[in-house]
Amino acid sequence: MTDVTFSSLGVAEPILRALAAENYTHPTPIQSKAIPALLSGRDLLGIAQTGTGKTAAFGIPLLQGLSVGHVPPQPKQEVEPPKEAFKAVVPQNEPPSPTPKRNMAPST
User: Fold this and answer.
1) Which of 100, 98, 80 is nearest to 89 (CA)?
2) Residue extents of the structural domains in the chain
């Protein structure tokens, strides 16, 4: 029997380091079958007893898929404060437009 490792299954280096930090060195049988299939994009239905590593069998490829091609979010562009935006639209060298006068006479 060959000695299967997570590395030989195609798991990415950052995930390999996390697995090693938790002392996971060799995949279980379901992980050995599931991880390559899921990394290649195939659908999979896995049935195994409790405690055999099904969650990691599905989770490791999921995490790898999420991390591949990850682009850090770009900082948002600063928006001009309203006063600055107003100055850009209304020329400041023009006199204000005349305000129409209203008849303020009391009504009878």
Assistant:
1) 80
2) 7-43+52-67
* pLDDT above 60 for 49: yes
Tens-place pLDDT, residues 59-86 = 999 999 888 775 556 666 666 566 666 6
Question: How far apart (Å, rounded) are the C-alpha atoms in residues 52 and 60?
Answer: 14
**Is pTM, for the whole model, over 0.70?**
no
> What is the number of other CB atoms lying within 10 angstroms of the CB of residue 16?
17
Which of 4, 93, 99 is CA-nearest to residue 57? 4
- Given a contact cutoff of 8 angstroms between Cβ atoms, the answer to whether 28 and 53 are in contact is yes
